[in-house]
Amino acid sequence: xxxxxxxxxxxxxxxxxxxxxxxxxxxxxxxxxxxxxxxxxxxxxxxxxxxxxxxxxxxxxxxxxxxxxxxxxxxxxxxxxxxxxxxxxxxxxxxxxxxxxxxxxxxxxxxxxxxxxxxxxxxxxxxxxx
Length: 130
Hints:
The protein is mainly beta. The chain has two helices and ten strands.
């Protein structure tokens, strides 16, 4: 069995996506170090998929200070579509994603050339292939 954990930091920002210019516009943080989440063992052999979306608070130094759950969608073999759910099935994926994202480091966002705190959205996807 092969297990694939797909990580992607989405550039869905709470702040505007602008190129930094002399007008003081903002540049989003750049991911420097990513820690892969551990796939929940209880779901690994069952073929489940989950997509966890977290709102991450990135500090002026580039560390992730905190995260908050925005959404979790999961799919199990035999289901016709993904389900939006904060249910028990998502809990281990949310915990794993949260633990990993809190260890990520970034080049901090800047505004007018100065580092600033940023709140933006991170997506962590778990895809298990049999």
